[in-house]
């Protein structure tokens, strides 16, 4: 229970961001869909197109819709010569706005086309202009139906706003995603609870407005709206301008990233910077967020950029990859590679220690003759990654079966005997804890994955900033990182990334 | 409400046609209606009578020809300003369900910024024989006949000289229908209106109107006073329509005489 209460302490600033995003999207949705509904009600052709489009949007998973806006805005920004942010608030706002169009549009069109034709004939007959007819007759008659649509849209938008975390917009989803990755269920619960409570409260208040309109009680309508406005004002308190600029530290969505972000943050805070965290960034999005200035610093891995972003399929030695990434990042993105932290988080094939000993397997080469009898369990993306292609090419490795899992369950599968081999992460704490044997890569098929500190273009020549972070370079060994990760990932006596970061700092003497 | 006025305006149709793709609703009609007269447009469904009526207040725009009210061409100026000078009552009434009776009656005053709405609403309720306290009721609390009386009061609110009625009693029971017909005719006489009423009921037309226009296939096939029609001077189509109430009246007399 105390873990849950601790987690609730993170809610207020995220709730404010969440509310601003959802409310802006809802407002924009209303502004777009009401005029569109009026035109649609008069022209069936427009109605078919508008409703068809809004329904189509609904069939796209929200997560995909959010992700789609990133390349869209990026190319749009390139088209107009830059300046359009492709991450954070804008793509989230646009995706959620589109998502909320359908219920408002559909209810408004249904309401308008469902008005008794005799009432419209009478409105024309007494000499109303088109505007008077809309204001005096149509709007009051469809208001309750439209309000019901707005209510639905509000609940959807508040729920879907949790997903904006993935494109770098802070929301209550930060807690849910971080909690899922670190298996901190109190954090997940607190995030879900807050989002659900917000949705229910807004729904209830809008419900009062809806009933007030239907029963023509102006007092009830205004009362509910005033309560809503006061609630929003209080919730937004953490966002009231403080006048200070802040350093934003990015983190992708797994424990090691959360821990390292805190380590970086603690150093910057100690040096007098005001720090904010942008956590749970999608792997492909973090570098874009950095070069766009949405975040100031984060940790990435040379192999990830080499293979995923630079699309290189060759596998030169670690040092060559490091140099290649450093030069590429500086020349094409203006991003500074400050240095390596001292450890790798590479894919490393692993087996149960006793099993490997019994079968006499020490390297990937030893696996080749027995692999057809073995089962491979991987994370979600490994089977599609260039590393797997490179390993197959180099060794001619073929497993009897290969199934993707969530990373946590990949380890469980190995532990329980449901799988015999996994591509583990070399800095993962579970390697030591589960007594796994890490297999060698004599042919050097898997690229180096040095953890590197990347700085945004703004800090390329920022000597003070760089001086604060320099002591981290080469400081963290893979054993230390494994231990710190395990503090967070283990099932019993779990630590928060914050606690693990403090432990790591003490361990390496920072 | 003034007790009477000199007379409502005349209405002149000049070679008016209304064509839809593949159909002609009104076919080249020219007819003049004298100011202050009560004219019934009678015909079967699809004869074009409602179309002809709605072209007067431009709820339907003619394909050809012109209509004048008094000396003014209806096509000149804005349609909504024209409609505010014309009373319009129709079968489905179309009371605004979100407004009470008083607000419904006063809607024209609201559109034109008229003053003393409450006083006018009371006068208009008196005029259509409804209690004044009906002003605060919602339309769905009224009977069909009461609703149409409110519809008539709403149409009279801006003191029009011309009343257009499209099957005004079509949805009412026979007793209510008869009472409301008598009330309408009385209002017509008292206010000196020009009234054009569309109906498919020849008996109603014969009893209420000064002049009956019989329509078929988009044309006027008979144009006569009720007396002339009853005397068989209206031609074949009119005779067929007049024969129905005449035959009913004869049979009623027989039953009465035999019993």
UniProtKB/TrEMBL annotation, chain B:
<dbReference type="InterPro" id="IPR003593">
    <property type="entry name" value="AAA+_ATPase"/>
</dbReference>
<keyword id="KW-0547">Nucleotide-binding</keyword>
<keyword id="KW-0067">ATP-binding</keyword>
<dbReference type="InterPro" id="IPR027417">
    <property type="entry name" value="P-loop_NTPase"/>
</dbReference>
<dbReference type="GO" id="GO:0016887">
    <property type="term" value="F:ATP hydrolysis activity"/>
</dbReference>
<dbReference type="Pfam" id="PF00005">
    <property type="entry name" value="ABC_tran"/>
</dbReference>
<dbReference type="GO" id="GO:0005524">
    <property type="term" value="F:ATP binding"/>
</dbReference>
<dbReference type="InterPro" id="IPR050093">
    <property type="entry name" value="ABC_SmlMolc_Importer"/>
</dbReference>
<protein>
    <submittedName>
        <fullName>ABC transporter ATP-binding protein</fullName>
    </submittedName>
</protein>
<feature type="domain" description="ABC transporter">
    <location>
        <begin position="11"/>
        <end position="242"/>
    </location>
</feature>
<dbReference type="InterPro" id="IPR003439">
    <property type="entry name" value="ABC_transporter-like_ATP-bd"/>
</dbReference>
<dbReference type="InterPro" id="IPR017871">
    <property type="entry name" value="ABC_transporter-like_CS"/>
</dbReference>
<keyword id="KW-0813">Transport</keyword>
<dbReference type="GO" id="GO:0015697">
    <property type="term" value="P:quaternary ammonium group transport"/>
</dbReference>
